């Protein structure tokens, strides 16, 4: 390697340690090893892969393996992640979901395309609600009974209180790269709706439209709350999902494998991860209110049972769950313990009362 190249590589490395450049410009992953010398940003390997699909807009190179020219280094120096953020993210709507490195591909790709290709956030657009107050379109919806996806028209209005909450695209579970799970609670029961669209931009647009509608709805419902408080009330990711086995209330009941989803204090279990309705729901209160989580030895008398047991005691009954591996067991234990260690809010007392009324 020539001395000049050596020097250039060193300069690139110094630039990559400047404030703002130490995290990926698009997803925030620490220590990005790639840079776009046409946009002047430092990005992680995954976002770099997405940039490669936009060759007209972004040209990327490895910080360590590529050959860097003097003018490219100067461009990186005079731009950088903070400057790019100020330019390309100047007017991101407050409700808009900014993906992180933990998020799925479709969310990340559409965020990058929205920023640099469509330059969607460079000028301010209208209010902070759902643009136009309404969104409608065709999505493929999974049939409740036969599991087939059929085209259905969906209409979302700004005043729609039905979509009480909502989670992000879940391609892994649905086995469709543009899959989206919509979950809402009606009559104190969770309902899952699974949809997809062949166009990733469309599915992400629905995702953000629902967030916009929720944001608007909450602003009306809580007129004194500031934007930050409202954002914190928008749906978050599920705390954890996965398989466990569960036994019924009687000692003779057998263990059955179920898909569990923990949303705040609502532990739901399904026969299949794509079921519309839960087979059952358990409310997880707090320690002060008589809820307990303990590790449990699972008696050998059961056959074909997973070995790692967890029991959850509520004021009404004790539930016994088993996990397949020690790793899963530790992970469920830690989320359950965390949930019950937090005191309940007034709203959660109301939800608990609904659960007690139901059983
Ligand atoms: Zn990234």
Automatic annotation (TrEMBL):
Keywords assigned: GTPase activation, Metal-binding, Zinc, Zinc-finger
Keyword DNA-binding: no
GO molecular function list: GTPase activator activity; phosphatidylinositol bisphosphate binding; phosphatidylinositol-3,4,5-trisphosphate binding; zinc ion binding
Record-linked Pfam families: ArfGap (PF01412), PH (PF00169)
Entry's Gene Ontology cellular component terms: cytoplasm; plasma membrane
Gene3D superfamilies documented for this protein: Arf GTPase activating protein (1.10.220.150), Pleckstrin-homology domain (PH domain)/Phosphotyrosine-binding domain (PTB) (2.30.29.30)
Name of the protein this chain belongs to: Arf-GAP with dual PH domain-containing protein 1-like
Organism the protein comes from: Eleutherodactylus coqui (Puerto Rican coqui)
């Amino acid at each position: 390697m020539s001395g000049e190249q050596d020097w250039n590589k060193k300069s690139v490395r110094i630039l990559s340690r400047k404030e703002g450049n130490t995290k990926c410009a698009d997803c925030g992953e620490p220590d990005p090893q790639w840079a776009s010398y046409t946009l002047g940003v430092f990005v992680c390997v995954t976002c770099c892969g997405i940039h490669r699909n936009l060759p007209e807009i972004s040209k990327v190179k490895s910080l360590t393996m590529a050959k860097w020219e003097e003018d490219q280094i100067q461009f990186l120096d005079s731009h950088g992640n903070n400057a790019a953020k100020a330019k390309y993210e100047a007017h991101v709507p407050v409700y808009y979901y900014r993906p992180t490195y933990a998020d799925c591909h479709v969310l990340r790709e559409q965020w990058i395309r929205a920023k640099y290709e469509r330059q969607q956030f460079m000028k301010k657009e209208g209010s902070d609600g759902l643009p136009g107050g309404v969104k409608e379109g065709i999505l493929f919806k999974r049939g409740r009974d036969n599991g087939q996806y059929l085209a259905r028209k969906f209409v979302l209005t700004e005043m729609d209180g039905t979509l009480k909450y909502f989670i992000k695209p879940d391609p892994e579970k649905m086995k469709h790269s543009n899959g989206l799970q919509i979950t809402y609670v009606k009559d104190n029961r969770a309902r899952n709706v699974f949809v997809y669209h062949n166009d990733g931009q469309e599915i992400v647009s629905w995702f953000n439209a629902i967030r916009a509608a929720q944001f608007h709805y909450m602003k009306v419902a809580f007129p004194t709350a500031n934007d930050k408080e409202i954002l914190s009330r928008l749906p978050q990711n599920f705390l954890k999902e996965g398989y466990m086995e569960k036994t019924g209330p009687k000692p003779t009941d057998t263990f059955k494998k179920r898909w569990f989803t923990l949303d705040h204090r609502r532990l739901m279990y399904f026969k299949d991860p794509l079921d519309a309705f839960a087979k059952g729901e358990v409310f997880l209160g707090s320690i002060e209110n008589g809820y307990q989580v303990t590790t449990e030895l699972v008696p050998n008398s059961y056959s074909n049972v997973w070995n790692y047991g967890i029991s959850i005691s509520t004021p009404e009954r004790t539930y016994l769950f088993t996990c397949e591996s020690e790793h899963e067991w530790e992970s469920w234990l830690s989320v359950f313990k965390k949930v019950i260690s937090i005191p309940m809010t007034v709203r959660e007392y109301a939800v608990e009362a609904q659960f007690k009324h139901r059983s």
